[in-house]
Structures are given as structure tokens and as C-alpha cells.
Specification:
There is one protein chain. The chain has about 400 residues and is of the alpha+beta class. The protein folds into two domains: about 210 residues, Aminopeptidase, CATH 3.40.630.30; about 180 residues, Aminopeptidase, CATH 3.40.630. Helix content is about 30%, strand content about 25%. Strands 1, 2, 3, 4, 5, 6, 7, 8, 9, 10, 11, 12 and 13 form a 13-stranded mixed sheet that branches. A hairpin with a 5-residue loop joins strand 10 and strand 11. The longest helix is centred in the N-terminal third of the chain and has 21 residues. The protein is globular. The relative contact order is 0.16. The structure holds coenzyme A (COA). It comes from Citricoccus parietis. It holds the Pfam family Acetyltransf_1. GO terms for molecular function: acyltransferase activity. Its EC number is 2.3.1.-.
Amino acid sequence: MRIEWLDLPDALDQTRLPMPPPTADFLQVTQLANLVTSLFWGNNDFYVSPENQLAGATSRDDVRTSYAVAREPLTGDRPDRIIGYAALSLPWEPGASADAQPTAAEVHVAVHPDFRRRGVGSALLREAEAEAVRRGRTVLQSWTDNALLDPAAVGSGPVFVAGTSLETGLTPVVRTPAESVPDAGRDRVRWQAPDAAFAAAHGYELAQVEWASVLDLREAAGAALVAESGSGAAEEHGYDLVGWEGACPEEDAGSMAGLLGRMAAEAPAGALERVAEHWDVPRLRAEERARREMGLTLITTAARDRSTGQLVGHSDIETFADLPQAAYQGNTLVHPEHRGRGLAVLLKAVNVSQLLRLRSETERLYTWNAAENGAILRANQELGFVPVATHPAWQKKA
Ligand SMILES: CC(C)(COP(=O)(O)OP(=O)(O)OC[C@H]1O[C@@H](n2cnc3c(N)ncnc32)[C@H](O)[C@@H]1OP(=O)(O)O)[C@@H](O)C(=O)NCCC(=O)NCCS
């Protein structure tokens, strides 16, 4: 087995055979990434096309991702097969001084199921950690898919892959009663699952537990009800609800950037190290350009305070043209001076109605929330979301 860093291609060239090595290698990485997520979820709701994954690695100003791969020789003169990879993402604060830069690097390791428990993951992780340290990072973080709690809610079925002996994540179903909001805490992590066992074996500590929840959009009556009953109340309290698809309209870009700047500081982070993020209109526009390259279109609903004309809260949903059946809840934030008035749940509900109108083919909306974020978990429950998986965050000092 050999470990090496990939040269990422500028673009994927699949028009000739054999494909140029950087294209062929990157395609193998994305196939492996998609295999691993589909085995966990039992569905294709987390499929990322090679084009979108490449754009995600290279087109953002505030984070760059590189890939170390493990190769296993194949017989004959065929190029070696990629059996595992480590994705190393280095966040960067555009315009910030050196001492205000993020200290953390994010790492994600995946190994083909036929090659596990042979030290491949460990070798990849060692390489990624060493590179993070070479690049001046002192903290490593990782988010993993840990336990699938409710396969039925995500439409899971068995995943068949020819010629391999694969186990899916469809192991014992631990049902969370619909009426209870899940607790925070260590006891919610399935410690014997590969991700947790691997993280613990390499000195990573549990820094936060997130719940993944899903809303069945074919039965999103709860959300529609909240949207209908709440919109009038918002207007009475002096807020106008506005919505858009894609780039933020020019007149709201300044206050939108202000809200995005609050997100990193105000979303619960558990024990995770974070640095302050500064957002202005150029950063917002750069992010919007990167999203377009990644095939990602945001659907946004925001509340405008009529007395100041400023946006004071927003909620957005991520959609991909090549993934019509699934959408992902993005940020939801309400400015501190406007909290406690039910705006967050209303913004989410109205945005779900917008999603249904704009993307009628979408079946499931996923969201990830910190287990200690009781307010948002209760709001989700009101809208009809059910918890489906645990998603722990891990951290280690380099
Ligand atoms: C987690 C993952 C990367 C491990 O890859 P791997 O090549 O099997 O890892 P290694 O062989 O280097 O395992 C190193 C140690 O981790 C622990 N470990 C890894 N998988 C384990 C499992 N299924 N059960 C229990 N312990 C496990 C063990 O302590 C193991 O040492 P040992 O084999 O000597 O007992 C792999 O299972 C995978 O791709 N999972 C899906 C993606 C994922 O969850 N990634 C999260 C990591 S960022």
C-alpha cells in the first residue's frame, strides 16, 4: 500500500480513455465517498457528483481541501486502485491577521469496506495529521456518521454492490420516541461503531453530538400549519418576510453578511474550537460564486425589521440540481435583539413552504443540530422532523 497526496485537476476530463490520471484518481475518490455514505444511509440522499466535489475542494476562498489516498497495486499494468482517502480541509479567514486565523483543520478518513481493519485508515490519518501540523494547525476536528436510528424514515433499503462483502449501517434500530427530544451526551454515541472506535483509538475526544433529523416533505403538514398561522403574527410585530433563490438581492446583502458573521460565534459549538468570522458583502458574493460552481442553490427566507429595513433573521435550505430527492437545512439565525418571538421556527417553516413550491420533487429535508440545542430541536419537532442518526464531532490537539 502506498499513501500519496492527489494533484487535483483543474477540471474533470472524461472525454478520452484512458482518462488523465488526476481525473481518474479523483473519480475513484468520489466513488468511494459515495459508496461509504450510501452504505451508512441505505439511500443516495448524500450523493455528491465528482464535479461538485471538486468544486467544493477548490472554489472557496475560506476553505481548501486536499486528498491523501491509499493505493493498492492491481495485477497487470492497470493503475493502482484507491482503497481509502483522507480529506484534509483547512479553513482560512480572508483578510484576517495571522494570529486571528483558524487553528483547526478538519479531517475525514474513509476506507473501502473490503480493506478495513488493516491499518489503512490509521496510515491515512497519520499523513493528514502531519500535513495539518506542517500547515501550522494545532487542532484536528472531524464529524462522522455514527448510528442510523430510523432507516424507515430515510427510505433506506439494502445496498448491493457487486463483488464485495459489505455491511450497511442498517444495524439495530434504536427508536427515539417521537414525543421526546433527544438528550445531549456521550451515551447517545454508539461507541462500537467504526467511526467512534477509530476516533477513540487515535486519541480524539467527543466534542459535541449532533442529531441528524429528517422531514418527510410528502407529509409536511406541520410546517405548512406553522407557516400559515405565524406569518400574520410576524407582520403584526413589524417584520416582513422575504424570500429568494440563489444570490441575495442587492438591497439586503449588507445585513445578510452581518447575520452570516454571527453564525460561527453564536451556534452552539460544544467543546469545538472556533474563531470569529468576519463577513462582508464581497465575502458573501465570493461564497455565492463558489456555491454556483458546486451546483448548490440556496433557498432563503429572511425577516426584515420594518423600522430599520435590516434583515434580522434568516433560514436557508441547500438544494442540488443533480440530487432532486433530497435537500439539506443550512443556517438558521435570529439576531439576539429579536429572539424569543418565534421567528426561528417561523422562518424555517416558511422556507419549507418555499422549498415545496420551488422543488416539488424533493422528498426529504435533512437537518443537523447540536444535541444541547433544545430550542431548535423542539422547533424541528413541531415542524415534523424526526431524529434519524447521530453525528458526533471529534477533536484532538495536534
Ligand atoms: C473508520 C474507518 C476510516 C477505519 O478505517 P480502517 O482502515 O478500518 O482503520 P484501521 O485498520 O487503521 O483501524 C485502526 C483502529 O481503529 C479501531 N477500529 C477501526 N474500525 C473499527 C471497528 N469497526 N470496530 C472496532 N474498532 C475499530 C481499532 O482500534 C483499530 O485498531 P485494530 O484493528 O488494531 O483493533 C473506516 O471504518 C471507514 O471508512 N468508515 C466509514 C467512514 C468513517 O466513519 N470515517 C470516520 C473517520 S474520520
